[in-house]
Each structure stands twice: as structure tokens, then as C-alpha cells.
Backbone:
């Protein structure tokens, strides 16, 4: 029996080891760039910075281009998230709860942007979008950002609907809830984890687009990634680190805001 | 007869809740032993400990006089059959049955020969190339049994294997399984919460309550002569009272207005809550605030009628508190 | 499904639910693809020609780029899958607690190019790993540190993708791990199978569809993404998306058809790969779903 217990201990040991490895590999780098962004003179072969200062953050915050592009980035990302919600939720509901002719073809088409190179599509669309006058505008950029986001949005929501099942929905309708009441009182609270994932995922993907934004935005729609590349080749390490941290902070800020809003909505609709 | 399995003073805890408390018992070679008890009494945990899926906190298990507590599940000659058939969905029936033999490195021709023999025994030979999803619930469970029996384990553990099937199927399968176990000479430990099943499946019956066996014996003895009120409630067929037990055959339901005769003694007063038929005799379910029991009556009763449950004083069997031959009373 | 309760029949309702997403995707993908293919077969003056493809296929540089692109895509996908699978298998019990699961989301928060910066920060010749090795005396000079980023094989690119996709793989696999009925593993053990047998018979069949799906997504993504190779790649050979972007964007309009044809090929390869593997896994998946005994 002692041997058996030892075996159990071994398993726990392995789990802890793996967890620590995960934290070192995936979490520690964030701490490092955080530290880097407030450091001065951290050069090879020093393991720690020689001093701390907020200069990098000051110079980031003073850059007028940066503030402007921050606003643009938020505008684009917010619209992308909103459009994804509006398009993905009904589509996911249809795909998860109904069988119909041609379902697999429609499904295939909806998920196809995962497989077809986004750059190719953006390049293909660019000329037409210029003709229709939506290239070089925020709306055009939002539109192409749907290519890498919408398939994931549908996939996430679909999994959520499938987990929820349709019986609760039917129960609510038998109890006298209409389409919208049903959505806000049953689906929204139960799908909250999926909606949260959808918003975070699409926000992050939109935030990370360089090529698509550049092709359709044509240098007039300047989002943060447009500035990141020139910064990367510039010499100030602390500034790049600060800029990198900014990219991780934006989704957090966004999701925090969303969380508060959604809780308010749910509390409002589910009062006794 | 040889003792095949011995469990000595087994203890098992899950985060400070004791599941098995100082459990000791043995199994004879070739016998069929059933354990009956309410859900949560620890019977599933007992099986999992025997199979090696859980480790013991204290105590020892001997199989053929060798301690097996340190052995991993795959190295014990013990197979566990679960409530659900748990057939591997991507393997055919034949592949499922040969699975364990393959792990034992039995040659392919021999594997197939043995598996096919076993499939014939469970009358599923012509389904050998089918996939599990093509089978009915009872067929799945029979494949699962074949998968276990083909390994010729020293001990087969059955965890309520019929509970997910419908009533008629359950009854026909019981006989089939018991025949098969006898033919193959496999020792079995069967657990269930269904008293009929427990009585039918076992040569010997143990009543389990809160991690202990509170009574062990021949099924007839246990059913007609429970050793305590708990035991009577779990397995006894009749009225379980603090001071003793009255078998159903001696119990009579008498309408309130009819006075019981001098020898009769009233134990409980209650109401008829349902009417049923047992062994072609009309029976009444009599309910009162603490429970309910089936009883016969000389009168025709209707639902809702107030009745007295009566029997002769001497028909009440006092619970035996003396130690029985297994030294169980605690 | 033709029943009609309320205002709309089911078919109308389904159409209404699907139409917006369907229309937008058709516009983006259908029109985008058609327009891209058309432009790859046209000269800049609008004449139809296959000269672009002829030029592409006669160029060694193109094939070098193609090889590099798929080498990076396949290697980073395989590594991410293996590492992600091992981590999921060991940590899924832990990740049931949502606080721990947040850890997996953290690396998902940052864009790929920031991950590229991290790899640069830690693994370049003057990076932190090199500093550490110097400090403990394992390295005499930073020039002795192997060149891991901005070199021809694409090691830095692969590492960035692995770092970024391992959490993605974990998030894809976790729901499947929670779905697996782990009593099956116990059945395997009592039938005499080892831990490895349990993985092979119980977990792998459940995981296979998701593993294939994930690998298709990853290969297609890496083969067509621009951001990382633009940051961490070298000019020769260049990864195809970077080459295409430069042909498209830099000055000379006569190069534009090349940009299209250069991206169509990896697109077609990824699509073929996807159809083949998803087709192969479809039947298996159906049986798994039907066969759940509950």
C-alpha cells in the first residue's frame, strides 16, 4: 500500500511540475516585459535592470499619433466585436438546433475563412472596395476584420448553444416567454461564458491584424499594430516593452467593461 | 472449499468521510456473493478497491492467499463490470471482446477462437462485426459480460450491471448471467440496491449499511430473519420496527372500524395509498408518517381507507444480537 | 421540419437566422476568392494570361519560399499539438477550477507580433537567455549564442507560433477531456491494459477529430499569416505571405498578379489538406457520437 500511495504522490508531483513549467513559459514573460517597460539600461549581459523609471510610459502616452491610433483601434475592434455578436449568435443557433437541407455546405462556407488565406481575400477585395469608396475607411477595415474573426465567433457560440441544449428554451417558451425574453432571460445568462470568449477572442484577433488593416486601410486607418512595427525597429527597448504591455492591457480593459455591462443587463431582465 | 478472496479490516476514507469501516469478509472459490445496500453505503467503493481503482487507507486484500493491495488494476486477475456496458464505441463487438486478451499477449487465432466461443455463449455470435451503437441495451451488456468472462478472471465484480435496462429484460438477463457464471466456474461479487436482484443472484448475501456489512447469510435466512432494523428495512420483506420484524405473510391490514381479534396486536395505523398485485394476490401499500409497507388483507380495501396493521404478538421476530458465525455484529 | 407555429415556419426562421452571416461570408470569401483568382490570371492591363504562374513556377526562389512556409507551418503545428496535448492531459483536472483556467487565457490575450517580440527578447543573441548563460559562465561571448531568430530555417518563427498556439491547443482539447467518460480508462485497466493502452483506446479516439481540426486550422493559419515572418524572418528565403505582401504593396503594379498567384497555391494546399483529413475523420466521429453508452 505504501508503494501505491507513493505512486499517487508521483502523479501530483508531475502535475505541479507541469504547472510550474506552464507558468514559467507562459506567464513569466509578461512579468519580464512589465519590468522591462519601467527599466533603464537593461542590456546584455545584465539579468536585472540597473534602474527603474517611467520615462518609457511617459513617452508612449505623449505620442499624439499613439493616442489617435488608440482611439481608431478601439473603434475598429468594438465594431468588429459587435458585428460578430449580431452575425454569429443567430447563425450559431440555427446550426446547433436545426437540421435542414444543405446544412453541411452552409457550415463549410461559414467556416471557410479559417482555411483560405486572409491576405489573399483582402488583396482580392481591395480594388472593389476602393471603387465602392469603403477602402481607407474604418468601416472597410472592420469589414475585412470579419474574415479572421467570424468563423471563430460562430464556432464558439455554436459550442455554447450545443452545451445548453434546446430543452430549457422550450421550457421557457411553454412558460410564456417570447423570442426576445427567451434570449435575454435564458440564453444570455447560460451562454455568458461563450459570449465572453467570443468577445475576447474577436477583440484580440482584431487587435492583432497588421496585413489586413494595411491592405484595406491603405495607410489612412492607423491602428496600433501600424505603429508597433516601426517602434520595433527603433532602439528604445523600454518603449517597445511598454507598447507590448499595452496590447495585453487593452483586451483586459475591454472585457472588464463588457463584464460589468452584461451583468447589469442580466440583473435588469431577471428581476423577480 | 478454498477461500478465494479474503478482505481483512479494510478502511477507506474520502476527505474525512469514512466510506468503508473495518470491513472483513471472505469469498469461497466458485461462489456467488451479493451485497445489497442503499446508495451511498459504500458498495461501489468496495468494488473499486477490490479492482484496484482506489487505494485502501488500511487493511489487506488477499486473492488466492497473496496480498494484492499493491498491484495495479491491470495486474490483478479481477475484472469489474460497470452499470453501463462501456463498450469502446470505435471497436467492433469482436474487437471489444478480444481487447483484454490482446493486452495479455494471447496469440491472434487463440484470441479470436476464445472470443467467438464466448460470443456464442451470450448468443451474439452473428453480431461480432457490428459496432456497439448497432446493439440494444441488453445486447451491449451481454457483450460487456463476454468481454469480462473471456479473460477467465479469478474474481468478477458486477456493479449493478442491469440497472440501466428495463424490468423484463433485467429479469431474463439475471438468469442468463447466473447460468453463465456457473458454467464458466467464475467467482462473482455482485452489488445492487434492488432486493429482488440481490436475493436471486447470490448464493450468499451481505447487507451493507454505512460502510459495514450488518448481516451475512443465505438469502432466505437474511430476508426472513433480519438481524437489525436497518437490515430489515434494506432487505426484509415485511414490517421493520424498533423491537423486531414481522414478515409480510403474517401481516394483516384491518379496516379501523373492525376491531382486531384478541390475539392480534396492532403495530401501526395508516392509510391505504395504493393497491397492487403480488404473486397473484391483491396487496395494499399502507403508508403512515414514518414509512410504508405492503400488506394483505381479508377485506377488500380502497385507496384512502384508514387501516390498522396487525399481527399475532408472537409473529414478531426479535432481532438477533448474538454474534453470528462470521463475527459480524458490532 | 415544415411545422409552422407562430409567424414564421421553421424554414423561414432558419433562413433568417443564417442569412446575415451567410451573406457577409459569401461576399468576403466568395467574391474575394473569385476576384483574387481572376486577378492572378490577368495582366495589369486586364488581359487574360497564365504568364504569372509560368514565371512563378520557373523561379527557384518561389519554391524555396514555399518549402520554408510549409516546413514552418507543419513543424510549429506538430510541436504545438504534442506539447498542448501533454499539458492538457496533465493539467485538465486543475483547469476545471476556473481561476487556473484563466492562466491559459493570458497568452491568448496578446497579438502574435507581441509574442514575436517576446521570443526576440528572450532568445536573440543579446537576449535574456544569452545573458543568463553568460552569467552562469556557460557562454563566453554573445556571438557564441546560436542564432535563433532572424535566420534561414525559421526557428524563431516556429518558436513564436508554438508559444502562441499551445494555449490555443489546450483550450481546444479541454472540452473534449471533460467529455471523455473516464470510466472507460478504468475498464481498460481492469481488463489488463496499461496507462498507455488507456490513452490509446479511450482518449485518442475521442481526441482525434479535434486534433485533426486543430492541426488543419493551425497549418492553414501559419501558412498564410504575415505578421510573424515579417517581424522575425530573413529576406532570403522569405515566407510566402511576406513575399506576396511585398509584391502587392511595394510600388510596381505589374507585380500584383504575382502576389495573388503566390498566395493561391498555399491556399489550395491547405484546403486540400483540410478536405482530406476532415473527410477521413467524419465517419469515425459519427460512430463515436452514436456509440456513447449512457
Residues:
Amino acid at each position: 500500500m505504501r508503494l501505491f500511495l507513493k505512486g499517487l504522490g508521483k502523479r501530483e508531483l508531475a502535475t505541479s511540475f507541469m504547472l510550474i513549467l506552464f507558468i514559467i513559459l507562459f506567464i513569466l514573460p509578461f512579468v519580464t516585459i512589465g519590468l522591462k517597460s519601467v527599466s533603464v539600461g537593461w542590456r546584455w549581459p545584465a539579468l536585472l535592470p540597473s534602474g527603474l523609471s517611467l520615462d518609457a510610459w511617459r513617452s508612449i502616452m505623449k505620442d499624439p499619433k499613439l493616442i489617435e491610433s488608440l482611439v481608431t483601434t478601439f473603434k475598429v475592434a468594438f465594431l468588429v466585436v459587435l458585428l460578430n455578436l449580431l452575425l454569429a449568435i443567430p447563425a450559431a443557433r440555427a446550426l446547433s438546433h436545426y437540421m435542414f437541407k444543405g446544412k453541411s455546405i452552409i457550415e463549410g462556407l461559414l467556416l471557410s475563412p479559417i482555411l483560405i488565406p486572409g491576405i489573399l481575400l483582402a488583396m482580392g477585395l481591395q480594388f472593389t472596395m476602393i471603387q465602392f469608396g469603403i477602402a481607407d475607411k474604418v468601416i472597410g477595415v472592420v469589414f475585412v476584420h470579419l474574415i479572421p474573426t467570424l468563423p471563430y465567433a460562430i464556432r464558439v457560440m455554436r459550442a455554447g448553444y450545443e452545451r445548453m441544449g434546446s430543452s430549457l428554451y422550450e421550457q421557457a417558451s411553454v412558460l410564456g416567454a417570447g423570442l426576445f425574453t427567451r434570449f435575454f432571460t435564458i440564453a444570455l445568462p447560460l451562454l455568458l461564458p461563450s459570449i465572453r470568449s467570443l468577445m475576447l477572442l474577436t477583440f484580440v484577433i482584431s487587435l492583432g491584424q497588421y496585413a489586413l488593416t494595411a491592405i484595406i486601410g491603405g495607410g489612412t486607418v492607423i491602428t496600433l499594430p501600424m505603429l508597433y512595427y516601426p517602434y520595433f525597429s527603433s532602439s528604445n527597448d523600454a518603449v517597445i516593452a511598454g507598447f507590448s504591455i499595452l496590447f495585453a492591457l487593452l483586451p483586459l480593459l475591454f472585457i472588464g467593461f463588457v463584464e460589468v455591462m452584461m451583468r447589469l443587463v442580466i440583473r435588469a431582465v431577471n428581476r423577480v | 472449499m478454498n477461500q478465494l478472496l479474503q478482505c481483512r479490516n479494510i478502511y477507506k476514507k474520502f476527505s474525512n468521510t469514512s466510506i468503508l469501516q473495518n470491513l472483513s469478509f471472505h469469498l469461497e472459490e466458485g461462489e456467488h456473493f451479493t451485497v445489497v445496500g442503499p446508495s451511498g453505503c459504500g458498495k461501489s467503493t468496495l468494488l473499486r478497491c477490490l479492482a484496484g481503482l482506489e487505494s485502501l487507507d488500511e487493511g489487506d486484500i488477499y486473492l488466492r492467499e497473496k496480498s494484492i493491495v499493491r498491484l495495479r488494476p491491470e495486474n490483478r486477475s479481477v475484472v469489474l463490470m460497470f452499470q453501463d456496458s462501456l463498450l469502446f464505441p470505435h471497436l467492433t463487438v469482436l474487437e471489444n471482446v478480444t481487447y483484454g486478451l490482446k493486452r495479455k499477449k494471447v496469440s491472434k487465432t487463440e484470441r479470436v477462437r476464445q472470443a467467438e466461443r464466448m460470443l456464442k455463449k451470450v448468443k451474439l455470435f452473428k453480431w461480432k462485426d457490428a459496432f456497439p451503437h448497432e446493439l440494444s441495451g441488453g445486447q451491449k451488456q451481454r457483450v460487456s459480460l463476454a468481454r469480462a468472462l473471456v479473460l477467465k478472471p479469478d474474481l468478477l465484480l458486477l456493479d449493478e450491471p442491469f440497472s440501466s435496462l428495463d424490468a423484463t429484460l433485467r429479469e431474463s438477463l439475471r438468469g442468463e448471467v447466473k447460468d453463465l457464471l456457473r458454467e464458466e466456474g467464475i467467482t462473482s461479487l455482485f452489488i445492487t440496491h434492488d432486493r429482488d436482484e440481490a436475493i436471486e443472484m447470490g448464493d450468499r448475501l451481505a447487507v451493507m449499511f454505512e460502510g459495514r456489512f450488518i448481516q451475512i447469510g443465505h438469502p432466505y435466512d437474511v430476508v426472513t430473519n433480519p438481524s437489525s432494523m436497518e437490515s430489515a428495512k434494506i432487505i426484509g420483506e415485511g414490517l421493520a420496527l424498533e423491537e423486531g420484524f414481522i414478515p409480510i405473510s403474517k401481516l394483516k391490514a384491518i379496516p379501523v372500524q373492525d376491531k382486531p381479534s384478541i390475539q392480534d396486536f396492532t403495530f401501526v395505523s395508516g392509510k391505504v395509498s395504493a393497491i397492487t398485485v403480488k404473486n397473484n394476490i391483491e396487496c395494499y401499500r399502507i403508508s403512515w408518517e414514518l414509512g410504508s409497507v405492503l400488506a394483505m388483507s381479508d377485506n377488500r380495501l380502497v385507496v384512502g381507507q384508514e387501516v390498522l396493521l396487525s399481527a399475532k404478538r408472537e409473529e414478531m421476530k426479535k432481532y438477533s444480537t448474538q454474534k453470528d458465525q462470521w463475527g459480524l455484529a458490532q | 421540419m415544415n411545422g409552422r407555429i407562430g409567424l414564421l415556419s421553421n424554414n423561414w426562421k432558419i433562413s433568417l437566422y443564417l442569412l446575415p452571416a451567410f451573406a457577409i461570408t459569401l461576399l468576403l470569401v466568395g467574391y474575394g476568392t473569385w476576384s483574387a483568382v481572376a486577378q492572378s490570371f490577368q495582366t495589369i492591363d486586364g488581359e487574360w494570361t497564365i504568364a504569372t504562374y509560368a514565371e512563378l513556377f520557373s523561379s527557384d526562389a518561389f519554391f524555396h519560399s514555399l518549402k520554408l512556409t510549409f516546413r514552418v507551418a507543419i513543424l510549429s503545428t506538430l510541436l504545438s499539438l504534442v506539447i498542448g496535448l501533454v499539458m492538457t492531459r496533465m493539467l485538465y483536472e486543475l483547469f476545471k477550477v476556473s481561476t487556473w483556467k484563466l492562466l491559459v487565457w493570458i497568452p491568448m490575450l496578446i497579438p502574435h507580433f507581441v509574442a514575436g517580440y517576446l521570443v526576440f527578447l528572450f532568445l536573440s543573441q543579446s537576449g535574456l537567455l544569452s545573458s543568463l548563460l553568460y552569467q552562469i559562465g556557460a557562454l563566453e561571448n554573445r556571438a557564441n549564442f546560436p542564432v535563433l531568430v532572424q535566420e534561414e530555417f525559421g526557428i524563431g518563427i516556429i518558436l513564436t507560433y508554438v508559444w502562441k498556439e499551445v494555449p490555443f491547443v489546450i483550450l481546444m482539447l479541454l472540452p473534449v477531456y471533460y467529455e471523455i467518460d473516464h470510466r472507460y480508462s478504468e475498464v481498460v485497466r481492469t481488463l489488463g491494459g496499461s496507462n498507455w493502452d488507456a490513452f490509446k483506446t479511450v482518449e485518442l479516439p475521442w481526441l482525434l477529430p479535434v486534433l485533426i481540426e486543430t492541426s488543419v486550422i493551425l497549418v492553414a493559419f501559419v501558412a498564410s499569416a504575415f505578421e510573424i515572418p515579417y517581424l522575425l524572418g530573413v529576406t532570403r528565403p522569405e515566407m510566402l505571405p511576406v513575399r506576396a505582401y511585398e509584391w502587392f504593396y511595394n510600388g510596381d503594379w505589374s507585380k500584383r498578379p504575382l502576389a495573388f498567384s503566390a498566395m493561391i497555391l498555399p491556399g489550395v494546399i491547405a484546403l486540400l489538406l483540410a478536405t482530406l483529413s476532415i473527410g477521413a475523420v467524419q465517419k469515425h466521429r459519427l460512430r463515436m457520437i452514436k456509440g456513447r453508452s449512457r
Q: What stands out?
A: Chain A touches chain B through five residues (CB under 8 Å).
